[in-house]
Amino acid sequence: MEIEPDTLNFISMFENTKNYKIEQPKGRIIVSGMGGSGISGLIASSLSNAFEDLQVIPWTNYELPKWVNKKDLIICISYSGNTAETLSAANRAIEIGCKLEVITTGGKLEELAIQNNFNITKIESGHQPRAALPLLLKPLLYKIGISDLNKQIDEVCRLETDVKEAQIIAKQINGKLPCIYTNGLLTPVGYRWRCQIEENAKILAMNHEIPEMNHNEIVGWTNSPSNMAVILIRDNKESETIKNRINATMNIAWTSKGIRITEIYAKGKHPLTRIISMVLLGDLVSIELAKLNSVDPTPVRIIEDLKKALGGN
């Protein structure tokens, strides 16, 4: 089985997608999106929480939160343009009177935006939504006005694709239940790893954030099953406080019990680079796990079956 071309072309998608006009909207920004489209909102929110004077709130459900008002900017992201939850959010935004922008390849979302004269960013079609993250994320980051974005993307485009590292990690965790832990800026990365392993390798995975897991999940490791694999994804610029907490967690929860830890550090200077370096590695690991288990990573039949059961959405 060959590795998915989209995965190997991940960085080139960033490089070859045009640079958009940098915008700096005022007020709250709610990013509506699900699955492979929705991860863009999680990354944008993480960047904003850590480094920006922006309130970016990801929304992964039908309609919109009750507190949304017409002063809020709603950005709806759906690769297909036909995601039921995202269409529901767009319609609710129109009812409230919010400014609405959409990022999509087309579908009903594009039609809705055209009918209501809203701004549309149309992106390249022909990819799996989960493999099209660079195409979806790049315009979103320009729209919300992330600082030094051109410099950050330039550094992202210099990242190297390390298939060998992914193969090593995949072999270490193969046959086990991956438990992925992150902190702060890299929190969306843990979720991305989990989703990619589940969709591409067709196996369950877990993710949690430190320090929150120190107040609950750490107790579950007291009598953990033997088939668990710990993946610890660390920021190369983590604070001394977080470093001490992570190291203490490792010693108390895992090392003292003989549980092997796969420890990985983000690469790069800029925050976006550090996120994307770990997203790319996780995508590669998920493909390598699929190869080890002779699984075709592309189809997601159970999702398609669910859509059919729900009437095609």
Structural summary, described in words:
By secondary structure, the chain is of the alpha/beta class. The model has no long low-confidence stretch (mean pLDDT 92). The strands form 2 sheets. A 5-stranded parallel β-sheet has the order 2-1-3-4-5, with helices on both faces. It has a 4-stranded parallel β-sheet with strand order 7-6-8-9, covered by helices on one side. It folds into 2 domains: 5-148, Glucose-6-phosphate isomerase like protein, domain 1 (Rossmann fold); 163-292, Rossmann fold (3-Layer(aba) Sandwich). It is globular, with a radius of gyration of 19 Å. Helix 3 (35-51) runs parallel beside helix 6 and helix 3 (35-51) runs antiparallel to helix 9. Helix content is 46%, strand content 15%. The chain has 13 helices and 9 strands.
For the largest beta-sheet, the strand count, sense and barrel status come to: 5 strands, parallel
Strand content: 5-15%
CATH class label of the largest domain = Alpha Beta
Find the structural class using helix and strand composition: alpha/beta
Keywords:
313 residues, alpha/beta, Rossmann fold, 2 domains, 5-stranded parallel sheet, 4-stranded parallel sheet, 13 helices, 9 strands, 46% helix, 15% strand, globular
